[in-house]
Design goal:
By secondary structure, the protein is mainly alpha-helical. The chain has helices spanning 2-21, 26-163, 166-180. It is built from 3 helices and no strands. The termini are far apart.
Length: 181
């Protein structure tokens, strides 16, 4: 900063010296002052740029570094996600095979369960049918016994009626009445 200030002051002094030497020519004097004015303006701009530019460049550099770090993190994250997707894709065939095997095992287990259930139901139906057959057999035997008893009674009645005469009837009635007394 001191250096820029020295350059500006030296330029002004040089311009003033040159202006005194050429006092006689009006147009040349004007050109020297224009150059002196330009040097002062350039020096002032250089001073302002020298004062403010480093801070602006440092802030911009910091911002660029921050963006580079963020971009690097985003790249690493994207690479990690891509690696995970590739890993899942590589394992996809294994997962599909495992799912197919699991579905096959479940279907086989369900088939076995249905077979066992069907066998149990068939056994129940057989037991029920046997009980019904046995019950029907008992009923048929009972009816047959009843029918046989009815036939026997009927046959006995016919035999008794065939042997029964009015004299036998009288004798039976008298015997019955005697037993009652």
């Amino acid at each position: 900063m001191r250096r820029v200030l020295r350059v500006v002051v030296l330029t002004c002094v040089l311009a003033a010296v040159l202006a005194q030497e050429h006092e006689g020519g009006g147009e040349e004097n004007l050109t020297v002052w224009k150059w002196a004015n330009f040097v002062v303006l350039a020096g002032a701009l250089g001073y302002l740029i020298g004062k403010n530019a480093p801070a602006a460049f440092a802030a911009r550099s910091l911002s660029i570094r921050k963006d580079i770090i963020e971009a690097e993190e985003a790249r690493k994250d994207a690479e990690a996600r891509a690696a995970e997707v590739e890993k899942r894709l590589a394992n996809l065939e294994v997962e599909i095979a495992a799912l197919r095997q699991e579905a096959h095992d479940e279907a086989h287990a369900e088939t076995n369960r249905l077979e066992q259930h069907t066998a149990a139901e068939i056994a129940k139906i057989q037991i029920h049918a046997e009980q019904e057959i046995e019950s029907a057999g008992k009923l048929a035997r009972m009816e047959l016994k009843r029918y046989a008893a009815d036939l026997a009674i009927e046959l006995a009645e016919k035999k008794v009626r065939a042997r029964m005469t009015p004299a036998t009837q009288d004798s039976m009635v008298r015997s019955f009445v005697r037993d009652l007394k």
